[in-house]
Every structure is written in C-alpha cells, then in structure tokens.
Design goal:
Phosphorylase Kinase, domain 1; Transferase(Phosphotransferase), domain 1; 3 domains; eight-stranded antiparallel beta sheet; 14 helices; 27% helix; transferase; transmembrane; signal
C-alpha cells in the first residue's frame, strides 16, 4: 500500500515537472527584457521600456532571429500540428525599401550558412544548408532569382527562399464581403495567423482590431512537417534581415499552441505601440509652410539661373572634322554622371597629359565600366594630342590594345573614353610594394602581349603607328591580368614607305633612343623603348635611378655588368623566386639587343615576337659588342655603322650623355 502511494506521488511529481519543462502553449502580450523564454540571435533585441521585439537594427546586411527557447516536442501518439497568432509591423527607416521578415519552424536553432537580404537570415542561394525550415515570409522586395511575384506578398517556403505558394498581401472582410489589399510596409500593426494540421497549412492576415478572416489568404495541402524537420521536435520563432537598404522589423505580441483549440488570445489592449522614427521636420503652421515655399522658389530660381549660365558657358564644342567620328562622341552630361561628377572617389591616377577617372555607363543590358581621361589642354598642343588619340585608335583593333570607346569636347576640357582596366597599370605591381608581386610567368605573358601589340602597330595596321611612349605605366592590366598597351597621346601615324614628318623629341627619360633628337621618331625608337621596358619588367627597376651608386644607376649598363660578371640572372627582380632561367636570359638579351645604340642593329618587332616565343634564335652578341650597353658619348666613336655629320653627331652624343647621365648642361 505504501509502495503504491509512493509510486503515485513520484508519478505526479514527474507529470508536474514534465509540464513545467515542456510548454506547449504560450502567449506574449509584449515582450519583457527579463523573460528568458525568448532567445535572441544576431541583431535581434528587445527594446528597453518599449516591450517590443526588434529583429534587425538600422544597419545593412544584418540578420536577427528570436525563437522560443524550449523546443516543442510531440509524443508518438500526438499529431504534429500547431497554431500561432502574432502581431508585427514593418516600418520605413528611409525612402528606400528593404527586406521583410518570416515566422519559421525548424529542427534546430543553428542556422550556419544562412545569409541576409532576400534570404531572411534562414536560407542561402542553395536553400537551407544546415537547418531544415518551414517559413512563412512577409516579403516587401521583388527578387527575380527567387521568383517573387511582387514587392508586397506572403509566401510559404520549405527549405528554400523560393516560395511553394504565395499571394499578394490582403484579407477577406466579412463585413464588406470582399478581399481588401494590405500594404506590409505601412508601419501599421498586422495580425498574422498560421495554422497547421494534418498536411494543411493556412495563413491569414488582418489589420489590428479585426477578427480572424473566415477565408485564409494562403492554403497549402501538401506539407508534411514531420518530413520537413525530420522528427517530432520543432523550434519556432521569427527571423529578419537587411540588405543595402533597411526597414525596422517589429513583433508586438505572439501566441502559440500545439492546437488551434488551445491557442490563447492576444490581449490587443496590452500590446506596445509601434516605434516610429521621430519626424523633426513637421511644420507647425501654415505661415511656416508659405515661407518655406517662397524660400524653395527662390533657391530654385538661383539653381535654374546657375544651370543656364553653366550650360551656356560650358557648351560642348563641335567642329566639322568631327563628323567622321560622330558615333564615337559622348555627351558631357553622360560622362559627368558616369564619374559621379568626376569625384575624387573615382580618381584613378594622373599621367603626363591629364587625370583619369573611373566611370560607369549604362548599356541596353548591363552597366559598362570605362576610364575617362581629361586631357590637359594647353592651346594647340593639347588639341593635337587629343586628336592624335582619336585618329590612332579609331581604326586599331587588337586584343593587346586598350580600346578607345569615344570622346567629348568642351571649351576648356577634352575627354577620352576607353575601356576600364580593373587591375590598373603594370608599374604599380613592379614598384608599389603594397601590391602583390607578379610571378615570372605572368610578367612573361604581359611582355609577349605588348610585343604583339607593337608588331601590329608597326606592320599590320592600316598606317604605321609609332607609339613614342612605351613604358610600364602605359601598360594596363585587364581583369585576367593580360597586358594592354594604352595612352596614344604622343603617337604618330604615317603611310607605309613614307618617313615620319616630326622630329620632336618627346617621350620619357630612360626610354628615348639617342638618335630621336637628330632623326626623329621611328619604329626603331619604339623598339629601343620596348627593349628598356623588357629590362624594367624583368629586373623590377626603373631605367634610371639617380639615388643608386653609379655602377647600378643605369639599368641597361647594370644588366651588361651582370652579364660580364658571375651571372646574367643576377639582374632579375629579387622578389621572383620561381622562374625559367632560359626564359629570363632570353628576355634580358632581347632587351639589350632592342636597346642597341645602333638603330640598324635593332630587330624589328616581328623578330622580337619570334625571339620571345623561342621561334627564332638570337644572334651572337656579347656585353662588349658595339652598341650594347653603351651610355657615354664615347660610345658613338665605337659604332662604325652609324653615319652622322659632325654637328649632328656632337649634338646626339651630348643629348645621350645628358639624358642618361643626368648632366643636362
């Protein structure tokens, strides 16, 4: 008898403890910070003194979740069902919209791999990687890739952000006998009911104060919750997320039960108010409105006057010769918008002929990134350089050239539009140690790219094109780090078989062939500059570095000294660790051969391409061969093949000495 009584008492204690441990029905008429039954994750929080559950704060790309801390367990004899009723609100933070929120049922509280934005902090592009989820979403963004129907809908999601069923937000009014549309992002409280029994899930909406509609908004009859969560234990809660724009996602009250019959009512009178951003700009009187309107009209008048003044003052310049290049012309307005008003945030760099900005131009299908160069306009010379690029690049088509897309002219501004090279110029990777070191195989590929581009300019283009400014800073790198030759502001064109008409000595110190001051530019002077460029890329050094000792000051001379010494490979960039000795030696020797002081001894760019590809054997020459590595005026006396008049020779020798030795007398 005593034993039976003790067993009965133990059974009662067990049942009472079990009922305490397992809550199957609960209701929150507002949320108390001291109530530990609500577990918060991410940016979710309960607002102090407001008793409101907020899922995300006003921060971009955030996720916040709140769920009932204890799982809901179903006995083997119980059907897996539930009914819930909650009151929520979605409130504007700014003019731009954001992302909504979702009520969810899951097998776990671990949402590893979930993402914000349209995935509600529950899913990712592949679905729900770590947690099996049934969710009812209140979505305020139309996203194409998840097949949203509009930007104001309710959907049922199963392990994926793509809804099984969805419908525009609305409710059935018994009083009016019709369906009435609702706006989720109104800032007003919204009642939501979710009932699941058997395999049927019903979702209903209504404004605060209305009864539960007699007809559900959504109904799905093919949902097996036990299969979805793969068990008879579930967690329930809410989740929200933000993207580049944000809204405030609030839950004001929540009731949940295993069955519709035992669902407790939310006491609407006890619910907290929806927090709204304070509006400090409300007008307090009609007079204030009138004064503000007058001020706005006054400011508008000033702006219109300034706009008309600027439009007349900076009107675009058009001349008859430009008719040939009509399709290449961009409006200044489009370039101004593309570069965000030539913002310093879009500034890419400054060259010898102006500043370069990054821009984004709209196209029929997608946006196109471009580089916009403002050519320095110094009278007639600036215009000549501007026209030179247009004329040169209009007919040039080669994969290793930076394509010119168009141009624009204004009274005081000349602008060139070319394809944007996302990896910038080559010299940044050679001399800026904050950037990663380019491996040898990549440098070698870039050298061959530029060799092909120059061979095309010299032999394959409609006219012979002399670039006249070949150097690492004028070699740009596309998204795949392919080399592209750009900046044709100093280029010259002439018909095949004719001689260039200019004798102006332009270029960059260290890359200029000695004879350029006497005989003017030619394909041979481009070859000389390319030879220096080969050495520059391989050695990771500039052609002339006055701060170094005399033995290392001039790159060409130093490479020859390395060749005379223990090994030519001593000249290579010390940052290179994995390279082909044969390729490096071949490139260095081709560089010295191209930089020969004897113009006739230099190879053509066609031959250079073959040398670099290993398809043509290099001629026999040594560091002490005539014209190789000679930098002083006496070098000319050792070059019997170069015929100059006395005055020309003296002048050329002086220029060579003064440029390369830094002695400009």
């Amino acid at each position: 008898m005593v034993r039976r009584a003790l067993l009965g008492i133990i059974w009662m204690i067990y049942c009472v403890c079990t009922s305490f441990q397992q809550e199957t029905s609960f209701v929150f008429n507002g949320f108390d910070q001291g109530d530990h039954r609500i577990h918060l994750q991410g940016s979710a929080r309960i607002l102090p003194k407001k008793d409101v559950l907020q899922l995300t704060n006003a921060t971009t790309t955030q996720m916040g979740r709140a769920f009932f801390e204890q799982p809901i367990d179903f006995k083997p004899s119980e059907p897996v069902s539930f009914s819930t009723h909650f009151v929520c609100a979605l409130v504007h933070v700014a003019e731009a919209g954001g992302h909504g929120m979702a009520f969810f049922v899951s097998h776990s509280t671990d949402f590893k791999g979930a993402q914000p934005t349209r995935y509600f902090g529950l899913f990712n592009p592949n679905g729900s990687a770590s947690t099996r989820v049934l969710a009812v979403e209140l979505d305020i963004t139309k996203t194409i890739d998840v097949l949203d129907i509009n930007d104001n809908h309710v959907g049922v999601d199963v392990n994926s952000p793509k809804s099984m069923v969805s419908a525009s937000a609305s409710y059935f009014s018994v009083k009016e006998g019709r369906k009435i549309d609702m706006k989720l992002l109104s800032g007003d409280p919204i009642q939501v009911w979710v009932d699941y029994e058997g395999t049927t899930l019903n979702v209903s909406l209504a404004p605060l104060g209305d009864q539960k509609p007699s007809r559900p908004l959504l109904s799905s009859t093919s949902i097996n919750l036990s299969e979805i969560v793969q068990g008879r234990r579930i967690f329930v809660g809410f989740s929200g997320s933000t993207g580049s724009s944000v809204v405030n996602q609030y839950v004001l009250g929540w009731s949940f039960s295993k069955s519709m019959a035992s669902l407790q009512k939310i006491d609407i009178s006890k619910l907290p108010k929806v927090p709204h951003p304070s509006n400090k700009n409300k007008y307090k009187s009609l007079m204030y409105d009138v004064l503000l309107g007058l001020l706005a009209l006054f400011v508008l008048g000033i702006l219109v006057g300034a706009y008309m003044y600027r439009r007349n003052l900076y009107a675009e310049v058009r001349e008859e010769w430009e008719n040939v290049y009509g399709p290449l012309r961009y409006s200044y307005k489009s370039l101004y918008k593309a570069t965000k008003g030539f913002s310093r945030n879009e500034f890419l760099g400054r060259g010898g002929f102006g500043e370069v900005y990054k821009g984004t131009l709209p196209r029929s299908i997608e946006l196109r990134e471009v580089a916009v160069k403002k050519v320095a306009h110094d009278g007639e010379q600036g215009m000549k350089q501007f026209v030179a690029e247009i004329v040169c690049m209009k007919s040039l088509k080669h994969r290793s050239l930076v394509p010119l897309l168009g141009y624009c002219r204004r009274k005081h501004e000349l602008l060139l539009v070319s394809e944007y090279m996302p990896n910038g110029s080559l010299d940044g990777y050679l001399f800026n140690h904050d950037k990663p070191t380019l491996p040898w195989w990549r440098r070698f590929a870039i050298l061959k790219d530029i060799a092909l581009a120059l061979s095309y300019l010299h032999t394959e283009a409609d006219q012979v094109v002399i670039h006249r400014d070949i150097k690492a800073s004028n070699v740009l790198l596309d998204a795949e780090f392919n080399g592209r030759l750009g900046d044709f502001g100093m280029s010259r064109l002439y018909e095949r078989g004719a001689d260039p008409t200019t004798t102006a000595a332009v270029g960059t110190v260290g890359y200029m062939a000695p004879e350029i001051t006497t005989f003017g530019p030619s394909t041979g002077t481009d070859v000389y500059a390319f030879g220096v460029f080969l050495l520059e890329v391989t050695c990771g050094r500039r052609p002339v570095e006055p701060g170094l000792p005399a033995a290392k000051r001039f790159l060409i001379k130093w490479v020859c000294e390395c060749w005379r010494g223990p090994s030519l490979l001593d000249a290579i960039d010390p940052r290179l660790t994995d390279f082909s000795s044969g390729e490096v030696e071949r490139v260095l020797k081709v560089g010295l051969l191209c930089a020969n002081l004897v113009p006739d001894a230099r190879p053509s760019m066609e031959q250079v391409v073959q040398y670099l590809n290993g398809n043509l054997a290099l001629p026999e020459f040594w560091p002490d061969s005539p014209g190789i590595g000679a930098l002083t005026p006496t070098a000319f006396s050792q070059l019997p093949s170069l015929s100059l008049s006395s005055s020309s020779a003296n002048n050329s020798m002086f220029i060579t000495h003064s440029i390369l030795d830094g002695s400009g007398r």
